[in-house]
Design a protein that fits this description.
Chain A: InterPro entries: Cro/C1-type_HTH (IPR001387), Lambda_DNA-bd_dom_sf (IPR010982). The complex is a heterodimer of chains A (77) and B (171). Chain A is mainly alpha-helical and 77 residues long. In chain A, 51% of the residues lie in helices and 8% in strands. The longest helix of chain B has 33 residues. The chains are: A mainly alpha (77), B mainly alpha (171).
């Protein structure tokens, strides 16, 4: 299988909203380490979990996940 | 206890200790094949079982804590990442178990080839061999899960300096 990379902005959204890993994990019904693995890019969530993460932050799913790297804060584009 | 499984290298040492406990049981069955039934066999059996437990109890306890019950908890108690990791562990353990069964079969055929149907195998060796098989089958998923386990993310989000604000997943 070809390598498929999915980028996410969970850590940035979580910091922006002041939500701890444990709180996010509790809201999603997953282990808090799973949130850490997601943020470190070591686990790719199911579509269901991805949609629930987007729903938790009240943003469209493409704001949280992307097939291309997100631009760094302050960079043009 | 946490220090026992904090790093991947230590967890892999625990996996090695768990593997030793299984190997000791296999050694016990092999020894019984050659010297049972006898008083020596009983003594050797007792000593090897104690050695097996000395490796098994701390290694399996620490691995179960490190993997957070990945190999033993019911699926409803695990999240989707843990379930996926458990499936990988069970799949790899299943492949390893097939190889072990093949190796055991070859070893038994080789050991009994010359004697033919007249070969007698001590009951203790058969019993311990079956026990070793069951033990291996029971323990392999935990050993595989412990071997594969990556270092957990730091608990304090403020410590997570290395990752920029994006993560990437390779599948």
């Amino acid at each position: 299988m070809a390598e498929e990379t999915v980028y996410n902005r969970i850590a940035v959204l979580r910091a922006d909203r002041g939500v701890s890993r444990r709180d996010l994990a509790a809201a999603l019904g997953v282990h808090y380490q799973t949130v850490g693995y997601l943020e470190r890019g070591e686990y790719s969530p199911s579509l269901h979990l991805a949609l629930r993460i987007a729903e938790f932050f009240e943003v469209p799913v493409e704001v949280v996940f992307s097939l291309r790297p997100f631009p760094r804060l302050g960079s043009p584009s | 206890m946490t220090a026992l499984y904090r790093t991947r290298a230590r967890r892999r040492l625990l996996v090695a200790a768990g593997a030793v406990s299984v190997l000791v049981l296999w050694a016990d069955a092999t020894v019984s094949w050659f010297i049972a039934p006898s008083d020596t066999a009983v003594l050797v059996n007792f000593v090897l079982l104690l050695v097996m437990l000395a490796f098994f109890v701390p290694a399996v306890t620490a691995l179960n804590i490190a993997t957070r019950g990945l190999a033993s908890l019911p699926e409803r108690r695990l999240d989707e990442r843990q379930v996926a990791e458990r499936l990988r562990a069970f799949t790899q353990a299943n492949i390893a178990m097939r190889l072990i069964l093949g190796a055991v079969l070859v070893a038994i055929v080789a050991a009994t080839w010359e004697g033919g149907p007249a070969v007698r195998v001590p009951g203790a060796a058969v019993f311990l061999g079956v026990m070793a098989l069951l033990w291996t089958h029971y323990l392999l998923p935990l050993l595989v899960a412990g071997w594969r386990l990556p270092d957990p993310p730091p608990d304090d989000p403020g410590d997570d300096q290395e990752s920029p604000n994006e993560g990437s997943v390779a599948t």
